[in-house]
Amino acid sequence: MRKIVVIDGQGGKMGAALTSQLKATGLDAEIIAIGTNSAATAAMLKAGADAGATGENPVVVNCADADIITGPMGIITANALYGEITPKMAAAVSASPAQKLLIPVNRCSVTVVGVEDLPLGDYVKLATQRAREFFEDKQN
């Protein structure tokens, strides 16, 4: 079965929205929610994730064999999300062979130049659409 890893921190709002939308698409994939804290993990589990875990080691372990990794752009930047992303977490996401579908968030000293400033819901829809397209392209 395919594996989508959703990583989020803080209160898990973005991760919960991603999880909910991904589940609604009916993709044949297991959705693993990994929070940088227990509140984020709980929010993603409540949104329908198939499994969840919290902390650095779950990020490292699950990124190794994920097909898709999604979450805020900060998950590839050490010390982002106000310090919740450890250097080891950022390295695991960055080094993973998985397709990364990252949502731009212009905070924590990272700005993506040239990216339109959209509401979170629009970015979640785009990420979900790209996940579906990624799996469809793999079948062809």
What are the secondary-structure elements, in order, as H or E?
EHEHEHEHHEH
Estimated helix fraction: 40-55%
| Sequence of strands across the biggest β-sheet | 3-2-1-4-5
Mean pLDDT: 93
End-to-end distance, in Å?
A: 17 Å
Low-confidence stretches: none
Based on helices, strands and strand pairing, what is the structural class?
A: alpha/beta
Number of strands: 5
Overall morphology: globular
* Individual helix count: 6
Radius of gyration: 14 Å
The biggest beta sheet reads: 5 strands, parallel
Strand content: 15-25%
Brief overview, please?
By secondary structure, the protein is α/β, with parallel strands linked by helices. The protein is built from 6 helices and 5 strands.
Write structural notes for this entry.
- Helix 2 links the parallel strand 2 (29-35) and strand 3 (51-54).
- The protein is globular.
- With 140 residues, it is of the alpha/beta class.
- It contains six helices and five strands; from the N terminus they run E-H-E-H-E-H-E-H-H-E-H.
Question: Which characteristics define this entry?
Answer:
140 residues, five-stranded parallel β-sheet, 20% strand
Q: How is the secondary structure organized here?
A:
Blueprint: E1 2-8, H1 13-25, E2 29-35, H2 38-46, E3 51-54, H3 56-63, E4 68-72, H4 80-83, H5 87-95, E5 99-103, H6 120-139
Parallel strand pairs: 1-2, 1-4, 2-3, 4-5
